[in-house]
User: Fold this.
Amino acid sequence: MYNLILGIVIALSIVMIIAIMMQPSKQNSAASAFTGGADQLFGKQKARGFEAVMQRTTAALGAVWMILLFVLAFLSSN
Assistant:
């Protein structure tokens, strides 16, 4: 059981890396690197389309990943 969950966690880690890398960039110019994105803090618009799907997918994968890691910790302590 432990090895199966460990394999799922490793595969899920790879899928999460791919999902994070597929997300669109939020920086529009080099100037936003110097301002730290403060100009976009209050003017942030809700994500739509592909960006919204990727954000939800990444959040769901992250939640499942964390739950599986807690299960692995519990199994290894017994």
Notes: The chain has a mean pLDDT of 84. The two ends are 13 Å apart (CA to CA). The longest helix spans residues 50-77.
